[in-house]
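Final report, closing paragraph on structural work. Over the funding period we assembled a curated collection of sequence-structure pairs, and we close with a single example.
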Amino acid sequence: MFNSSSSITPVSSADSTDNVYMRDVVGNKSDAAAAGAVSTTESLMAYAKQNVTAGIALDGFHDVPSADSADNAQMRDVLGNKTDTTAGNSAVALLKQLITATGQVPVTKALTFSNDTGTVNLFTVTGDVHVEIVAVCKTNVASAAAGNIRLGVSGNDEAMISDTLATDLDANEFWNDNSPTSNIQAADRVRSYDISNGDDVILTLDAQVDSGAITFYCRWWPWSSDGNVVAA
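Its predicted structure, as stored:
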């Protein structure tokens, strides 16, 4: 007659390698996780723990890396972060460099005047670059002091556009010379320059400019390996 008490299977000792009973094959909850390649001595419990640990590690490999990570240990480092800069080496950074090199996405600086005077940094330049700059007045510029404005680089503040009466700039006009008059211009009037040694693009205000707004668009290409342009 079947004796139910005899069907109770004792728990195997931890990390048993006896391989005599099924309990030895299944193992003990306190078995250590298996390591490395599959062997002929570890229990199912040991392999289960090994798989759980490997799964946790695998999940970690899909975590987003920090911006501009140079670890190069996992594929996440190679692919990169959406916030990687063009100075990085990830796939995202290199793609951004490619987009920049084709000049398809301009760097934009939207400037709104509020009783301003002096020098305003528009674009920060690194290395040697080629730039094309378009300035569009968005809101009529007002200056009770009848101030002049000019566009240039840190080494020559009117290299791009010479002194222009600020109040001559009206909404929707292009500012490409000291006599802005139109909301349409020929493409060959776009201001195009080569800049070396990281001279920043600046706007200089001779007297207080009370109000108004101008948006500056800059398409650029690097000449030197460290060439870069960003909105200031």
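The chain has three domains: 4-61, 65-103, 106-231. The chain has four helices and nine strands. We thank the funder for supporting this effort.
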